[in-house]
Specification:
It is built from 15 helices and 17 strands. By secondary structure, the chain is of the alpha+beta class. The protein has 3 domains: 127 residues, Beta-Lactamase; 103 residues, Beta-Lactamase, CATH 3.30.450; 228 residues, Histidine kinase-like ATPase, C-terminal domain (Heat Shock Protein 90), CATH 3.30.565. The strands form 4 sheets. The protein has a 5-stranded antiparallel sheet with strand order 2-1-5-4-3, sandwiched between helices. A 5-stranded antiparallel sheet has the order 7-6-10-9-8. A hairpin with a 3-residue loop joins β16 and β17. The termini are far apart. The C terminus is likely disordered.
Length: 491
């Protein structure tokens, strides 16, 4: 008897300590034993629970829904434990709880007959609610990603695409089934792949800061979409890189607006150069007129005819070159990028604007370094940058002066330096010269877009423009562009 009492106390102690609700049921489905956890969560007293049938302890609708009574009888008959699954139980005056329940047979002393069935109910309410909250958060995040106007791409550490949002499908024309598992690099323009690959490798290697680059996306029709990419890494709780994320913004509309601004700036530049251009065209026309008059007066002088026609041909060719350069300059820029020799672009710009600087009594000194590395760029846009900087320097020398144009290889790229001997820029203005609409020119003589547009074009080419100035001594503007094949830099 003493042993039975000790065993009972041990049994009751175990039941009281386990963090689950436990009921012991006899063959008539009456409650023989109920632990403290069950009584506390159901707000029932021991006297009101022990000896009661299961239908008096649980709501009938719960028993009907779970077939709990049938399951218990089956355990009595078969002697096999059964995992019942989840049940939702709400006692009067108690919030709804979610339980995972299990039915276990308890045999008699001889071990031959199932004498009781233990109903063990593990409270999983907090876990279920947490899971539901996690699912809501995941659905919310997925909705945010899907409704974003920007491209959102997740990749594994090797750069293979793992997710592809709706904006990515619309912009690229590729559905998820066409890009799943493909490297993002394959969808970028060939000339941009090296820079994208290098940035992804840096993220994979643990670089903590994000990388911002521009790379064209090739659509399913073969067209190009200019995209500004922000690349970053995903990390686990141990801070290991487990994936990569790329967020891309379509720059097409921005590029169109920039093109309109650039075209407007070109027209402004042409207006400024109009006097010099007219003077330069007038010279070959005057030669043609004089030669034609000589031909008219001396129609039989063969040597004179030969010399006059030669001069006419040279003058016409010169006028044609001037007009062709003007047409190239005024023509809207195309988006195509090509490998360029910057010396050629600088030379063409100086020839175009040469008469304007001459009329302003500005001596241009050319220091063009041979064998420069080529750069990947748009000839027309870069010519616009150089034109803006030359005109800017010319405006700083209203009484004449010297403009020195230098090219040289520097920092895995090419520098084009424009130095003038003008009045210089005061320090408080120097930090704002690249701001849109900032100008020190009188009203009606400038809108402050030349330098800001030039800066935007340089950034578009992966380069930069810097300025140095001393009041009374002049200013120096330096354009740096990366050599073809070099990684585009964020400057």
């Amino acid at each position: 008897m003493t042993q039975e009492i000790a065993f009972k106390q041990l049994y009751e102690g175990i039941l009281a300590s386990i963090p689950a609700s436990v009921l012991l049921l006899d063959r008539r489905l009456r409650v023989v034993s109920a632990n403290r956890n069950f009584l506390d969560k159901s707000l029932r007293s021991q006297d009101a629970t022990l000896g009661q049938e299961l239908a008096q302890v649980f709501p009938p609708v719960l028993l009907t829904y779970t077939h709990l009574e049938d399951r218990i009888r089956k355990v009595f008959d078969t002697g096999q434990a059964e995992d019942g699954g989840e049940m939702t139980y709400r006692a009067p005056g108690v919030p709804t709880r979610v339980y995972f329940y299990r039915l276990t047979p308890v045999y008699d002393k001889g071990g031959r007959r199932v004498e009781h069935v233990m109903l063990l109910m593990e409270d999983r309410t907090d876990r279920v609610r947490l899971g539901e909250e996690i699912r809501r958060v995941e659905q919310h995040l997925a909705s945010v990603v899907e409704s974003a106007n920007d491209i959102v791409v997740s990749m594994n550490v090797d750069g293979a695409i793992q997710s592809w949002n709706r904006a990515a499908e619309v912009i690229s024309g590729f559905g998820w089934e066409h890009v799943r598992g493909r490297p993002l690099i394959e969808l970028c323009a060939p000339e941009n792949r090296d820079s994208v690959r290098t940035s992804l490798l840096r993220m994979r290697g643990g670089q903590r800061t994000s990388a911002n680059i521009e790379a064209d996306l090739i659509t399913n029709t073969g067209n190009r979409v200019p995209v500004a990419w922000s690349l970053s890494s995903m990390r686990d709780d141990s801070n290991w890189v487990i994936g990569l994320v790329a967020i891309g913004r379509d720059l097409s509309e921005r590029r169109q607006m920039e093109a309109q601004l650039i075209q407007s700036a070109k027209m402004v530049s042409l207006g400024i150069m109009a006097g010099g251009i007219a003077h330069e065209i007038r010279n070959p026309l005057a030669i043609c007129s004089a030669a034609a008059q000589l031909l008219h007066e001396y129609p039989d002088d063969s040597p004179l005819i030969h010399e006059a026609t030669a001069k006419i041909r040279v003058a016409v060719r010169r006028a044609s070159e001037i007009i062709e350069n003007l047409l190239k300059f005024a023509r809207p820029s195309e988006d195509r990028m090509a490998s360029l020799d910057l010396n050629e672009v600088v030379y063409e710009t100086l020839r175009l604007i040469g008469n304007e600087t001459s009329l302003r009594l500005i001596k241009v000194q050319e220091n063009l370094t041979n064998d420069l590395p080529t750069v990947l760029g748009n000839r027309s846009l870069l010519q616009q940058v150089f034109t803006n900087l030359i005109l800017n320097g010319s405006n700083a020398m209203p009484g004449g002066g010297e403009l020195c144009v230098t090219t040289r290889a520097q920092e895995q790229g090419v520098q084009v330096i424009f130095g003038d001997t003008g009045h210089g820029i005061i320090p408080q203005h120097l930090d704002h010269i690249f701001d849109p609409f900032f100008t020190t020119m009188p009203v009606g003589q400038g809108v402050g877009l030349g330098l800001s547009i030039s800066y935007a074009i340089a950034k578009q080419h992966g380069g930069r423009i810097t300025a140095e100035s001393q009041v009374g001594k002049g200013s120096t503007f330096t354009v740096w562009l990366p050599a073809a094949g070099e990684e585009t830099r964020d400057k």
